[in-house]
Amino acid sequence: xxxxxxxYKNSVxxxxxxxxxxxxxxxxxxxxxxxxxDFKQHKTASLEGLDKVINQAKQAKQLATTRGLEAAKAxxxxxxxxxxxxxxxxxxxxxxxxxxxxxx
Length: 104
Known about the structure:
Blueprint: H1 2-13, H2 17-34, H3 43-67, H4 73-87, H5 95-100
């Protein structure tokens, strides 16, 4: 997970196309590897989330190649939003949630 986060950050911070392509390719490769993980809970939703992130990363790469790095920013931002959404599936319950249940 740390390597995946680092590859994502490197793609966001890239200032030239070569650096961006290296980082986004590594990110996509790590995502594909993550799909082989043994998800104990929410397997279908987790795989769906990974596929969505992979599609956004590929779209960002295509936009960066055809229209420049600035065009890739929108798909990269949506990746962060997807990360937040799908990470909630695997977070352990907090103290208050254990006492009172989910409040959503």
